[in-house]
Amino acid sequence: MDVNNFGIDPSINLVKNFQDNYHKTLRSNCYVLGVSKTAVSAKNSMCGIKNPASSGKVLVMEQLVITTDSESNVVIKPESASGGTTGLNGSNKFLGGSAGVGIGETNEYDSTLFPTYGKLSGVNGSGSGRVPSLYTFTSPYIVPENYTFYLVCLTLNVTMVATFFWSEEDV
Q1: How many Å apart are CA 170 and CA 45, to the nearest integer?
Q2: Dihedral sign (CA 52, 53, 54, 58)
Q3: pTM of the predicted model as reported, rounded to 2 decimal places
Q4: pLDDT in tens, 46-101
Q5: Residue 154: predicted pLDDT
Q6: Domain tally, the chain
Q7: β-strand 103-109 against 57-68: which pairing, if any?
Q8: N or C: more exposed end of the chain, with fewer CB within 10 A?
């Protein structure tokens, strides 16, 4: 398809997206956090970002980088009121800005039979020269209050490291 037939210049869209993200960062509204889960025998590793109850925000998941220690498929699994191990809050991409409400969380799962929102196929592990896999969503995932946006490694006994990029908007 020739985009010029529709009067669309792809470079204009690229510049507009960059400008929108630039302004969100200037408003101290963009965050990043790395979360890692060490392999657990006979369990699926899970890394996620939790939006606490009564945060007053929604998390807008925009991009991820995932690395595993062996090749595996990873799926997105939303969870309400999750009971995982919480860690740090997201770091503001405007250096020196306040931390986000999103909190890193890890967990493990003992079954591959669970509802998912999307499969991120062919995540390359970091072993044997593999490189991290980058995913940029064409439309973002929205994480409401009291939900966790989890990534679940479908291969048992695998270490996973995920870096999440998101913005936060008032409810």
Answers
A1: 31
A2: positive
A3: 0.80
A4: 999 999 999 999 999 999 999 888 878 888 888 886 678 889 999 988 888 889 99
A5: 83
A6: 1
A7: unpaired
A8: N
